[in-house]
UniProtKB/TrEMBL annotation:
It comes from Hymenobacter setariae. This is PLD phosphodiesterase domain-containing protein. InterPro entries: PLD-like_dom (IPR025202), PLipase_D/transphosphatidylase (IPR001736). The lineage of its organism: Bacteria, Pseudomonadati, Bacteroidota, Cytophagia, Cytophagales. Transmembrane segments: none annotated. GO terms for molecular function: catalytic activity. PROSITE patterns: PLD. GO terms for biological process: phosphorus metabolic process.
């Protein structure tokens, strides 16, 4: 039994419990809780709340569905509140498109206090400003007890069971976008798209690519069109440079100064003078190789290509840059939980029959009818009570048969098959330390005598085409994330 009981709010006109809850949080040594919604930031409640949720034994479970603000949960997590959990579970009723039954609706907090004391906060406040500051009409009962009492043990076990549920996941800041996807929210800021141009180069011959001008020469008409479209649309271009000396990958910004098609039958398309600059020659299905130019290419040499592009390489981009596939992976989705679905359906089918069986009990043992206040029952004739109870049973049956219910839980990417490797991953694997010496020769040998300065570091090797990275499509669009 509780040692004492308090009711909040204190009065009809003073509905905020901010001060009272803050006082308990300040004294508490442990917290175990479950609330339906969380929309407050760390500034709303006492800073001790972060400290409580940093302790290994403490925890609080929150339903993922709106209006829960996962950015606010993230703010607590950044400050050290690592014991936050999100319940990713819902029931949907077919035929009721907009009816979602979210399964965590508890408002229950259990605080460990000094000297073996404890407080149990029951209903109806969520962790929202509207509730805690008094905008809503809420009510809560606070029970003071000891940590060894039956009440404490029952409440603690109930909250532990919520946390142990298979659909209750520890809050993971890396899944922030996934949580928002499950909530049905759009992306906060769509990541910009860029055109990625991978190249190979040798830092032993060129200390840096930054602030260098490259002359890209290639054959494929679709690659020329991609450059022309990027130039016309001012699409950002990122140079992804694979260093044949170190194996490192570096990113640079690129400006397309100008570009054009080369037609063997149109002399004006190749009778051009570009001056001294670095060449980036694109062989069929392999990376363009960037190196100092031996001499300006005469028109007869340019005539052999299908397009040219003059590219100004800008400064090195931050290492925090990530290139993501243009099409977003389905990293999180709602997945039907067949076992839970069958359990819920069986319960709903049995519930109306169980209610009918109650009608055979003696009048004094019958539970109150759902639509009849308990205080009215003693004065009702048995016939009238039975009639109203039967009507309630019929209505209950109708509601239960509106459509079959399905239970869904969250499925995240790491619970499914791994994603297939991207072209970059395949290239990265090829540029491994044991393969670098071979790749340097493979890139330089076919081109150096014709287009580039002689290279003493490249040795004559028997070249195996299977060891050279293949790249059928040179230019791909990706999303940029810093």
């Amino acid at each position: 039994m509780p040692n004492s009981t308090r009711f909040f709010p204190n009065s009809w006109s003073d509905r905020s419990i901010h001060h009272q809850l803050g006082a308990t949080i300040c004294r508490a040594q442990g917290l175990y809780g479950a609330v339906a919604y969380w929309t407050i930031g760390p500034e709303v409640l006492h800073a001790q709340l972060v400290a409580l949720l940093s302790q290994p034994e403490s925890f609080c479970c929150v339903d993922l569905h709106l209006p829960t603000d996962v950015d606010k949960l993230h703010a607590f997590h950044r400050l050290g509140a690592r014991q936050l959990f999100v319940q990713c579970h819902e029931v949907r009723q077919r035929g009721e498109r907009h009816l979602h039954r979210h399964l965590l609706h508890t408002k229950l907090l259990l605080f460990d206090l000094p000297l073996g004391q404890a407080e149990v906060w029951v209903g109806s406040y969520n962790f929202t400003k509207q509730a805690l500051l008094g905008a809503n009409r809420e009510a809560s009962v606070v029970l003071t007890t000891t940590q060894g009492s039956d009440l404490y043990q029952q409440v603690r076990a109930y909250l532990e069971a919520i946390r142990a549920d298979a659909h209750c996941h520890r809050f993971d800041p890396a899944r922030l976008d996934d949580y928002k996807k499950l909530q049905g929210l759009p992306d906060d800021e769509p990541e910009p798209e860029c055109l990625v141009l991978p190249v190979a180069w040798h830092s032993a011959r060129m200390p840096t690519l930054a602030r260098q001008t490259l002359l890209l020469l290639g054959q494929a008409p679709d690659e020329r069109r991609a450059l022309a479209q990027a130039d016309a649309a001012n699409t950002p271009v990122v140079l992804r440079a694979y260093d044949l000396s170190t194996g490192l990958t570096t990113h640079y910004g690129v400006v397309i100064q100008n570009q054009g098609a080369i037609d063997r039958n149109v002399p004006s398309s190749y009778d051009l003078s570009f001056g001294q600059r670095h060449l980036a020659v694109r062989p069929p299905e392999t990376l363009p190789y960037v190196a100092p130019q031996l001499h300006p290419l005469p028109p007869a040499e340019l005539r052999e290509f299908g397009f040219w592009a003059s590219l100004l390489v800008l400064d090195k981009l931050p290492t925090s840059l990530h290139l993501l596939p243009r099409e977003r992976d389905d990293t999180a989705h709602w997945q039907r939980d067949w076992e839970a679905t069958e359990e819920v359906r069986a319960h709903l089918e049995a519930a109306p029959e169980a209610f009918n069986q109650q009608l055979t009990l003696p009048f004094g043992e019958r539970p109150p009818a759902p639509d009849i206040p308990r205080a009215v029952l003693p004065d009702l004739p048995a016939e009238q009570w039975l009639s109203w109870a039967m009507e309630s049973s019929v209505r209950y049956r109708r509601k239960a048969k509106l459509g079959k219910l399905d239970v869904f839980g969250a499925a995240f990417w790491d619970e499914r098959e791994p994603a297939p490797p991207t072209a970059f991953e395949e290239l990265d694997n090829q540029f491994s330390p044991y393969n670098l010496r071979y790749l340097a020769a493979a890139y330089e040998q076919p081109l150096r005598q014709r287009y580039y300065e002689p290279a003493s570091i490249a040795q004559q090797l028997a070249l195996d085409g299977d060891r050279v990275p293949r790249l059928k499509k040179l230019l791909e669009k990706y999303r940029l994330r810093y």
